[in-house]
Amino acid sequence: MGEWGFLSSLLDAVQEHSPMVGRFWLVVMLLFRILVLATVGSDVFEDEQEEFVCNTQQPGCKPVCYDAAFPISHYRFLVFHVVVLSAPAALFVIFAVHQAAKPGRGGAPGQRARRLQPFYVGSVVARIAAELGFLLGQALLYGFRVQPLFVCRRRPCPHRVDCFVSRPTEKTVFIHFYFVVGLVSALLSLAELAHLLRKGPPARPGCCHRPQERGPAPGQPAGAAEGPRGPHPRGDLTV
């Protein structure tokens, strides 16, 4: 759990620069991904290879069939998914801390937010690309159902070998849950990107304020505060 705690602290630092939609994404990431994967996922997939049983005693046949059934372990794939999704946010936090530590780069909070917003938008775009890529990879590699029986015909197996997967229903439910969480996370990221693009960069301080006209002092007639006027452009018109 130590590694997950470090990753959670990095993600938590992003909320300082995130809008409300981004904070909802952070809650989904911490609760329904990191916490569920650390507490439930390890128990669901810990016996994945040990309980993969094949009806043969041929040396080397079981590892080859397991490799054909699961090119990447479900649990390792999901862990790698979380790490890649967290990488853009973690890189943004490191960049923001580095910029704040530079001499003369502190400035007002509005100025800092204006300088960092393009990099934050880039991290959201990278997060969306990673999310969609892993959802597609999960669908292509595993589908949406863990089959209880896998038929293997690879060498060095002497003939067709039947291999059996442990707890296929429980693993199918977990995969469905994780895929739905991924879809929700992708929709939240798209909504955050649309919000950031519609909102635009923060306005510069004082860019939209007009100088106020000074009114007359108390007791002075209207127009007295305008100051002395210059001579008429046509000169003196008195006779």
Fold and architecture overview:
By secondary structure, the chain is mainly α. The chain is built from six helices and three strands; from the N terminus they run H-H-E-H-H-H-E-E-H. The chain has a three-stranded antiparallel β-sheet, covered by helices on one side. Helix 1 packs antiparallel against helix 2 (20-45) and helix 5 runs antiparallel to helix 6 (168-199). It starts with a helix and ends in a 40-residue tail after the last helix. Mean pLDDT is 78; it is low at 224-228 and 232-239.
Q: Which features characterize this protein?
A:
239 residues, mainly alpha, 6 helices, 58% helix
Brief characterization of the structure:
The chain has 239 residues and is mainly alpha-helical. It has helices at residues 2-12, 20-45, 61-69, 74-101, 109-141, 168-199; strands at residues 53-54, 149-152, 161-164.
Helix content: 55-70%
Number of strands: 3
Quick one: biggest sheet? 3 strands, antiparallel
- The side-by-side strand order for the widest beta sheet comes to 1-3-2
- Percentage beta strand: under 5%
| Pattern of helices and strands | HHEHHHEEH
Form type: elongated
Mean pLDDT: 78
Helix and strand topology:
Layout: H1 2-12, H2 20-45, E1 53-54, H3 61-69, H4 74-101, H5 109-141, E2 149-152, E3 161-164, H6 168-199
Antiparallel strand pairs: 1-3, 2-3
